């Protein structure tokens, strides 16, 4: 039929354009519509957690539930390394229940969880964590490689940082990484950086916060992730992001970069912590380093962001406010 074949031609033209165009593919954008009008946005951030409740994961979860209730949180951000040691074996891996569904059971935590992938997640079946089948099993679960979350006054830019690390490719040791969907690596990384740069440039949000698994600045065990620092940080600086939130180092940490003013917030205390594992750092930049378990909350209004770190007893370890002039152009 005439109509049918012209449709087919159109589809082919679109496919060809997509296939050959060097253009910037936009990152997928999700929208969080606040349920509480004129109220601050309340977020809870946890990372490096999935260990079937061991290494105090259950205690952290219990305290998250209490603090989450008090703050009436809107959603949870997970900074990755969701399932130890080697991600999920597939969509039917019981670890999804043992480390997530049956651990974060508090009523206040029955909100959407926005997850990124960590290096340990890449050691399993990556597609399983990205699969909508998991969201069918537990509607809280949202996991993508890189995406934008538009929450009105703030936009979060989730970046897939694991493929940046050279040694996972050149010196993986006994580990096997699932790079399907990432290769060829150079093209994947350059597209991702272009996409993040473009998205940050387009953003009209009052606050811009980038989330990734790997550290950019950290006094912890892993320290700075040189590849991410060299390739992603210049974009964050040029686009004046307010904060970068990560996990990977199993600690709670707040570094203010005196040069750029960017706040580097590590929330990697979801289960196993690394006691006493700290490198020297400039005193005026390191506002908190806590080598035990815990999590972080962020409360955001148009003019203010309050960041608080908690330990497993619910004790406030560190609280910090960032302010923004209301008459600033976004
Ligand atoms: Zn990690």
UniProtKB/TrEMBL annotation:
<keyword id="KW-0378">Hydrolase</keyword>
<protein>
    <recommendedName>
        <fullName>Purple acid phosphatase</fullName>
        <ecNumber>3.1.3.2</ecNumber>
    </recommendedName>
</protein>
<keyword id="KW-0964">Secreted</keyword>
<dbReference type="Pfam" id="PF00149">
    <property type="entry name" value="Metallophos"/>
</dbReference>
<keyword id="KW-0479">Metal-binding</keyword>
<dbReference type="GO" id="GO:0046872">
    <property type="term" value="F:metal ion binding"/>
</dbReference>
<feature type="signal peptide">
    <location>
        <begin position="1"/>
        <end position="25"/>
    </location>
</feature>
<dbReference type="GO" id="GO:0005576">
    <property type="term" value="C:extracellular region"/>
</dbReference>
<feature type="binding site">
    <location>
        <position position="119"/>
    </location>
    <ligand>
        <name>Fe cation 2</name>
    </ligand>
</feature>
<dbReference type="InterPro" id="IPR024927">
    <property type="entry name" value="Acid_PPase"/>
</dbReference>
<dbReference type="InterPro" id="IPR004843">
    <property type="entry name" value="Calcineurin-like_PHP"/>
</dbReference>
<feature type="binding site">
    <location>
        <position position="48"/>
    </location>
    <ligand>
        <name>Fe cation 1</name>
    </ligand>
</feature>
<feature type="binding site">
    <location>
        <position position="81"/>
    </location>
    <ligand>
        <name>Fe cation 2</name>
    </ligand>
</feature>
<feature type="binding site">
    <location>
        <position position="81"/>
    </location>
    <ligand>
        <name>Fe cation 1</name>
    </ligand>
</feature>
<feature type="domain" description="Calcineurin-like phosphoesterase">
    <location>
        <begin position="42"/>
        <end position="251"/>
    </location>
</feature>
<feature type="binding site">
    <location>
        <position position="250"/>
    </location>
    <ligand>
        <name>Fe cation 1</name>
    </ligand>
</feature>
<keyword id="KW-0732">Signal</keyword>
<dbReference type="GO" id="GO:0003993">
    <property type="term" value="F:acid phosphatase activity"/>
</dbReference>
<dbReference type="InterPro" id="IPR029052">
    <property type="entry name" value="Metallo-depent_PP-like"/>
</dbReference>
<feature type="binding site">
    <location>
        <position position="213"/>
    </location>
    <ligand>
        <name>Fe cation 2</name>
    </ligand>
</feature>
<keyword id="KW-0862">Zinc</keyword>
<feature type="binding site">
    <location>
        <position position="248"/>
    </location>
    <ligand>
        <name>Fe cation 2</name>
    </ligand>
</feature>
<dbReference type="InterPro" id="IPR051558">
    <property type="entry name" value="Metallophosphoesterase_PAP"/>
</dbReference>
<comment type="similarity">
    <text>Belongs to the metallophosphoesterase superfamily. Purple acid phosphatase family.</text>
</comment>
<keyword id="KW-0325">Glycoprotein</keyword>
<keyword id="KW-0408">Iron</keyword>
<feature type="binding site">
    <location>
        <position position="84"/>
    </location>
    <ligand>
        <name>Fe cation 1</name>
    </ligand>
</feature>
């Amino acid at each position: 039929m005439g109509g049918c074949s012209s449709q087919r031609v159109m589809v082919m033209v679109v496919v060809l354009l997509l296939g050959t165009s060097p253009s910037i593919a936009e990152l997928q954008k999700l929208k969080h519509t606040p349920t509480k009008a004129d109220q601050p946005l309340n977020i809870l951030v946890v990372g490096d957690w999935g260990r079937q409740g061991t290494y105090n994961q259950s205690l952290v979860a219990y305290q998250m539930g209490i603090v989450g209730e008090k703050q009436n949180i809107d959603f949870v951000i997970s900074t990755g390394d969701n399932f130890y040691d080697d991600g999920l074996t597939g969509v039917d891996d019981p670890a999804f229940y043992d480390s997530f569904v049956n651990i974060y059971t508090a009523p206040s935590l029955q909100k959407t969880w926005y997850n990124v992938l960590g290096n340990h997640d890449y050691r399993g079946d990556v597609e399983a964590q990205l699969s909508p089948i998991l969201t069918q099993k537990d509607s809280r679960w949202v996991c993508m490689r890189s995406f934008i979350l538009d929450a009105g006054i703030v936009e979060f830019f989730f970046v897939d940082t694991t493929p940046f690390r050279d040694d996972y490719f050149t010196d993986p040791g006994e580990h096997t990484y699932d790079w399907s969907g990432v290769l060829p690596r150079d093209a994947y990384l350059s597209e991702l950086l272009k996409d993040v740069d473009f998205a940050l440039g387009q953003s009209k949000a009052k606050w811009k916060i980038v989330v990734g698994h790997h550290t950019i600045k950290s006094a912890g065990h892993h320290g700075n992730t040189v590849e991410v620092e060299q390739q992603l940080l210049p974009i964050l600086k040029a686009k004046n992001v307010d904060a970068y939130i990560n996990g990977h180092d199993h600690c709670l940490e707040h570094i203010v970069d005196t040069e750029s003013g960017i706040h580097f917030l590590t929330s990697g205390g979801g289960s196993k912590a690394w006691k006493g594992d700290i490198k020297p750092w400039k005193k005026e930049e390191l506002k908190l380093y806590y080598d035990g378990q815990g999590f972080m909350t962020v409360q955001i209004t148009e003019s203010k962001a309050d960041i608080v770190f908690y330990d497993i007893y619910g004790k406030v370890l560190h609280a910090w406010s960032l302010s923004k002039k209301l008459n600033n152009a976004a």
